[in-house]
Design brief:
alpha/beta; 11 helices; Peroxisomal Thiolase, Chain A, domain 1; binds acetyl coenzyme *A; five-stranded mixed sheet; about 325 residues
């Protein structure tokens, strides 16, 4: 049995926060943000919208496009760093509850911006081993809830949203996910971190006063490791699978920063039409960014059966991952 990408779906909250809006919050400018990141707008969830609410909307689309009812899902994985609840229950359990899925495993994956590729790797392994037939994987983030809105070095980067995909079993080799690579190096743990409110520094008045429960980032250092790792990761994956970069239909990288994406795309020698860029409108939505970008391709009718996708992600941990797969909706 092989594993295949059957469908994608996404959801973005309606509220849009522009760079000009941010100029009123922190000492920044549209010009600085655009030049350094390529971001123009990001979407922000409503106060009563949780991460699982975003994930549910994306999942409904993915399920409908796969022609599946919720009860046909036998594993649900949610990649997130902004869960509904601290520790428990998992956001996957909340999504399952809201979709009416019960009595199947539901689990969260915490791999920051690489979370969707970690979820894809896990789904592939479950399907190939025969432990699952139809896996719903979700990348969902309400990063606006864990961003320090007084820190101009991070608050301009992030946005909210969710993407989902159905990974199903197939006997057709040409439909199969060709390869997924995931990896991590914890020596960089403090480059991208929410230092407070975990067991290392439990929640206290001091932690709250220091705003230590929000995202902190060594942006410049992260940038350098990100470009190097994202490039070597996909070069290795393509080489291992005997695929030339020109054979890829779409390169869909995690949308962190336009400068990072263009540096990686240039070193791979990719043409503009191969590169999928959404960071300008959504900002960095962490684990949701790749499935949201895939959904944009789908809804713009640019994603066709058999298109060869190269996914590439890098995030806190550090974690990273890449995947080579065709889009294989059922006829
Ligand atoms: N507006 C105006 N000026 C700013 C802002 C801002 N929003 N933020 C920082 N600056 C200033 C700095 O204070 C600094 O000023 P100084 O020279 O007087 O000290 C100057 O701009 C340059 O700052 P740098 O941090 O060197 O800027 P850089 O070019 O590195 O851009 C950025 C910053 C956009 C954060 C970049 O480093 C980046 O994209 N890093 C990687 C992010 C990433 O890949 N994250 C991984 C995934 S995220 C996840 O896993 C959740």
């Amino acid at each position: 049995m092989y594993a295949a990408l059957r469908s994608v779906g996404a959801y973005v909250p309606s509220k849009i926060l522009t760079n000009h809006d941010l100029e009123r919050l922190v000492d920044t400018s549209d010009e600085w943000i655009t030049k350094r990141t390529g971001i123009k707008t990001r979407h922000i969830a409503a106060p009563d919208e949780s991460t699982s609410d975003l994930g549910v909307q994306a999942s409904r689309k993915a399920l409908q496009r796969a022609g599946l009812e919720p009860e046909e899902i036998d594993l649900l994985i949610c990649a997130t760093i902004s869960p509904d609840y601290f520790c428990m229950p998992s956001t996957a359990c909340m999504i399952a509850k809201k979709l009416g899925i019960s009595n199947v495993p539901a689990l969260d994956i915490s791999a920051a911006c690489s979370g969707f590729i970690y979820a894809l790797a896990t789904a592939k392994a479950y399907v190939e081993s025969g432990m699952a037939q139809n896996v719903l994987i979700v990348g969902a983030e309400k990063l606006s809830a864990i961003v320090d809105w007084s820190d101009r070095t991070t608050c301009i980067l992030f946005g909210d949203g969710a993407g989902a995909a159905v990974i199903g079993g197939t006997r057709e080799r040409e439909e199969a996910i060709r390869d997924v690579n995931i990896s991590a190096d914890g020596k960089y743990y403090d480059y991208l971190i929410t230092p407070g409110c975990g067991t290392e520094r439990p929640c206290s008045e001091e932690v709250v006063k220091e705003r230590a429960c929000f995202i902190k980032m060594k942006g410049n250092e992260t940038f350098k490791v990100a470009v190097k790792t994202l490039t070597s990761d996909v070069v290795d994956l393509l080489e291992k699978n005997g695929v030339e970069s020109q054979e890829i239909t779409y390169f869909v990288p995690h949308q962190a920063n336009y400068r990072i994406l263009s540096a990686v795309a240039n070193s791979l020698g990719l043409r503009d039409e191969q590169c999928v860029i959404t960071v300008d409108k959504y900002g960095n939505t962490s684990s949701a960014s790749i499935p949201m970008a895939l959904n944009d391709l789908y809804e713009e009718r640019r994603l066709q059966k058999g298109d060869l996708l190269l996914l590439d992600a890098f995030g806190g941990g550090f974690t990273w991952g890449s995947a080579l797969l065709p889009f294989s909706p059922r006829e």
